[in-house]
Amino acid sequence: MELGFLSPIFDRPGPWASVYFDTSWLTEDAAARHELAAREVHDLLKSQGADERTRKAVYDALLALPRSSASPGRALFATAGEVVLDPALARAPSGGPHATWGPLPHTAPLLELMDTAPTCLLARIDRTGADLELRGPFGRREAGQIQGEDWPVHRTPNADWSERRFQNAVENTWEHNAALIAESLKARRAETGAQVLVLAGDTRECHAVHDRLAPDFHGTAVIAEHGVRAPGRNAAAGEEKLDKEVEEARASYVHRHAAEVMERFQAGRVPTDDGRVGAAEGVPALVDAAREHRISALLVRPDGPDLHREVWVGDGPDQVSVRRTDMQYLGETRPVSARADDALLRSAVATGAEVISVGPLMEEPGTPGGLPVGGLGALLRWPYGGPPAEGATGGSAPA
Which pTM was predicted? Predict the structure, then answer.
């Protein structure tokens, strides 16, 4: 999951109010339930020591939230009397509203409640070009058009010599347009950062485009069974099925990627011949890696006991320690106590590391239970431990 959007709340000092709120009520008493839940959040924050200005800002923002089944929940992060960020949730929090007051924003629940699937580039293709659309956690938006040659594109039923030449010209146009679409999709994917590609529309042309895609598309490009480039009035059912296929493609990417990262994590836990490892687990090892910006991907198992473990933090994302007394060496004279998951997520976002929830993998056959140990682990940017690498002057050097 890419969490760069959280930078505004990690760039500001706390303390922070972190709220997870259900907005899916559509019953007759929805307004009353909504107000009671907002009041409950206000009282929870008050009991934890939140200041009055921040409590009021949160309460007012919660009352103003629209109730909708399309957006079943909302997270709010507030400090100093201001709601700084309020991302929509894909799933409502269970068990009523959740509210915490602490030195860092409590962001770990976002891994389970937000739409964590990557952006998808949807290409509606016919024999003359393609219409492009981006779909992701932000919703949908148009992404341009690819226009190929528009003549000749239609075959004729005749079989004489002149018509065969025309048929060849038609097929040449199809081939040219397929190559143009494939090349253009490569450029559009780089521009948009989309990680999933779905091809919909003309079956022959979709396969022709797919066959011409660069190798780095393989495994991320899907040919849909439904959808056309110019849907007519009777295409609603096909569009609904296409929507489902797009979401399945996004979810499949998330699952496949998480499984690949977990496999690399398991391999990285095994020391090499010189005693170096490419993965870390356990709060002390992860804190050391976070301070040194060695975390490439942070793995989080939601039920892990280490998520709640106490660490000490300062204002900077690399000011984190297991022991309070160590903070003075990091330039922090007034450290505060925080949850390990919140501190490590802040460090991961600050250094551009990926964050992955591995909870869904735990239910699959063949996946070792209890990994990462304690619920927190990491793939490292370079191996560490063991004797210094050849040519190193001392300490743990990159391999």
Answer: 0.83
